[in-house]
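Repro:
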Amino acid sequence: MEANLFPQDQDRGIAEEHRIKAESARSEAEQFRRLAEEAREIGDKRRDALETLRQDQERLRQAAEAARIAGEEARVAAETARDAAIDAVHATAESLKATLEHMKVVEDLRRTLREIRDVNKLDSN
């Protein structure tokens, strides 16, 4: 084969080469643009997921704080109930003690009345 001796054919070949390289560069640039857009979208999704996670953690922290407060209130209520139960036991013990003392007095009175009755029976005989 003989070499192409016409400069215009060479110019057309060079122009075609440049056009092909330019098209390839445009195609590569478009591919990089798409990749960059995908990377931005992934970054946005990641940020959204992190924000959702942060909000969930905050809700859990608030729920834990509410549970802690409720637990503290329950502890105070239980302590108050325990104190009230102890007071009730002491009051019952005092009441039983007073009742026992009254029963002793009544028994002493009965004994005294029996003795008086027995003395009166002896006097009347």
